[in-house]
Amino acid sequence: MNIWDANKGDLFLIPPGAVHFSGKNNLVLEISSTTWWFTFKIYDHLRLDRDGRPRPINGDHASANMQEQFDTDYVQKHLIAVPKESRVQGDSREELLGERQDLLFQIKRLKLDGEWIDDTAGEFVMFNLVEGDRVRLTPLDDKTAAVEWGYAEAYIVPASVGGFRLESLGDRSCTLIRAQVSPDWNMPLLPHHWKSGEPS
Predict the structure, then answer these.
(1) How far apart are alpha carbons 151 and 128 in whole angstroms?
(2) How far is CA 159 from CA 108, 173, 180, 191, in A?
(3) What phi and psi values does residue 98 have, to the nearest 5 degrees?
(4) Class of residue 98 by CB neighbours under 10 A (exposed 0-12, middle 13-18, buried 19+)
(5) Are the C-beta atoms of 183 and 153 separated by less than 8 Å?
(6) Distance in angstroms (rounded) separating the CA atoms of residues 9 and 192
(7) Most buried of the four, 67, 101, 116, 151, by CB within 10 Å?
(8) What does residue 60 show for φ and ψ, rounded to 5 degrees?
(9) What are 88-146's pLDDT values in tens digits?
(10) Helix (H, G, I), strand (E, B), or coil: what is residue 101?
(11) What is the model's pTM?
(12) Whole-angstrom distance, CA of residue 48 vs CA of residue 56
C-alpha cells in the first residue's frame, strides 16, 4: 500500500482495477463514467448494513478485480497527473490534467481570468466550479439562454449549444474542471447486458 500527499488541485487517475481510497481532510471531486459502472468497495469504512452489522471486507472478490500492474512505480509514472498547458486566451489558461485510453473522460482545468470563448464541437461538456464565486456561460447564438452557477456546483453543457462564452462573476478569477468524453474513447457506453433493439 502506498500513500501520497494530496494537495489542492491534484488529479489522481483511477482506471478499472486500481485500488484506491481518500484520506483525512480530503474533499474529492470524483468524475466517473456511468451509473452502471461503479466503484466496487473492498471495505466500506465503518458503514453498517441494514441489520446494523459492519459490512464485510470483500477480499477474495476484490483480488480477482485488481490489476497487479498498478504498483508504486506505475502509479508514480502514469496515474498522478502532471498538468500540461493546452490553450491560452488572454489571461485565461487551460491545462490538460488527465487522459488515458482506459478512462472515459478527458479532464482539463480552466483558470478563468476574463472571458473564454469555446465550442462544444458536437459533444457534451461538464464544468465544475472548484475555485471562485460564480461563473456565467452564454451560448454565442442565444444570449437569452445564459446560465450561472456557483462554487462547488456543476453544469453540463449540451452538445447542441455549440459556441459559448464563459466569464467569471465577482471580484476574483475562477477555476473550473472541464470533463468530456475522451476523443480516443471507443468502447460502447450502454450497459453490458443491453442488446441492440432493446429500449435503453
Answers:
(1) 8
(2) 17, 26, 10, 22
(3) -160, 145
(4) buried
(5) no
(6) 34
(7) 116
(8) -65, -45
(9) 999 999 999 888 877 778 899 999 999 999 999 999 999 999 999 999 999 999 999 99
(10) coil
(11) 0.78
(12) 9
> Which amino acid makes up residue 194?
W
**For residue 65, what are the CA distances in angstroms to 12, 75, 82?**
19, 17, 27
Residue 60 C-alpha cell reads as: 477474495
- 15-39: pLDDT as tens digits: 777 877 787 887 777 777 655 556 6
Task: Write the DSSP string, 130-196.
Answer: EESSEEEEEETT-GGG-EEEETT-EEEEPGGG-EEEEEEESSS-EEEEEEEE-TT--S--S-TT--T
Spatial CA neighbour of 188 closest among 104, 98, 123: 104
Sign of CA dihedral 83, 88, 94, 99: negative
In the three-class reduction of DSSP (H, G, I as helix; E, B as strand; rest coil), residue 97 is classed as strand
Residue with cell 473492498: 42
Can you read off the three cell numbers belonging to residue 150? 456557483
